[in-house]
């Protein structure tokens, strides 16, 4: 078990901890939830860095890392939907989660065709992930009823992330379009 894989597993272990802390009936549950998510986000960057720097890339890590990322973001967004409970919040949350489902399916299908490289993670995807993490960290950190200004900042950042999410999805779909429309694959 490489250090990179251990970091990824640690990120997955943080998910139930995030849920428990988020629902604790204390005012400090907001900032502590944000700290837990921040630690998970740092391990997202760190496990990739360690895997590349120390040549610790493994098939298990290649499978588990994106699963951990998507679980972390989806769980945090579901928790936040419960607190924010408005269409203004649900719309970008659905865009983000929906895009992850579409692109995961697209990558799996393209891998079956031996063309996974055409839908590999791009620089825009990294910017999108950073915007998502920043938005979720802000939204988790502050009770929206007590800190409406931070809620607005979180919403703006979340909409930026949703916009980048749609943009990156369009780029991936455009790259895969010739295969999607190929007569031999219909």
Salient structural properties:
single chain, 186 residues, mainly alpha, Four Helix Bundle (Hemerythrin (Met), subunit A), 6 helices, 81% helix
Layout of secondary structure:
Layout: H1 3-23, H2 29-53, H3 59-84, H4 87-112, H5 123-141, H6 148-180
Helix pairs in contact: 1-2, 1-3, 2-3, 2-5, 3-4, 3-5, 4-6, 5-6
Description of the molecule:
The protein is mainly α and 186 residues long. It has a single domain, classed as CDP-alcohol phosphotransferase transmembrane (TM) domain (Four Helix Bundle (Hemerythrin (Met), subunit A), Up-down Bundle), CATH 1.20.120. 81% of the residues lie in helices and 0% in strands. It has helices at 3-23, 29-53, 59-84, 87-112, 123-141, 148-180. The longest helix is centred in the last third of the chain and has 33 residues, at 148-180. The radius of gyration is 17 Å and the shape is globular.
In the CATH hierarchy, what is the architecture at level 2?
Up-down Bundle
User: Please, how many domains?
Assistant: 1
What is the CATH topology assignment?
Answer: Four Helix Bundle (Hemerythrin (Met), subunit A)
What spatial form do the alpha-carbon principal axes imply? Answer: globular
Mean of pLDDT:
92
* Gyration radius over CA: 17 Å
Produce a short descriptive summary.
The chain has six helices and no strands. It has helices spanning 3-23, 29-53, 59-84, 87-112, 123-141, 148-180.
């Amino acid at each position: 078990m490489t250090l990179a894989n251990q970091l990824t597993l640690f990120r997955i272990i943080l998910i139930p901890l995030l849920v428990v802390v988020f629902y604790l009936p204390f005012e400090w549950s907001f900032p502590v939830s944000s700290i837990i998510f921040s630690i998970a986000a740092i391990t997202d960057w760190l496990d990739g860095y360690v895997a590349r720097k120390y040549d610790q890339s493994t098939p298990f890590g290649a499978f588990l890392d994106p699963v951990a990322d998507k679980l972390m973001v989806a769980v945090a967004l579901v928790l936040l939907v419960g607190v924010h409970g408005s269409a203004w919040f649900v719309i970008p949350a659905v865009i983000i989660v929906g895009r992850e489902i579409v692109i995961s399916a697209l990558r799996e299908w393209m891998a079956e065709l031996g063309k996974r490289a055409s839908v590999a993670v791009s620089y825009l995807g990294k910017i999108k992930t950073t915007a998502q993490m920043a938005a979720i960290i802000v939204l988790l950190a502050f009770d929206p009823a007590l800190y409406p200004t931070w809620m607005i900042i979180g919403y703006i950042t979340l909409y930026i992330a949703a916009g980048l999410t749609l943009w990156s999805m369009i780029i991936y779909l455009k790259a895969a379009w010739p295969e999607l429309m190929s007569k031999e694959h219909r």
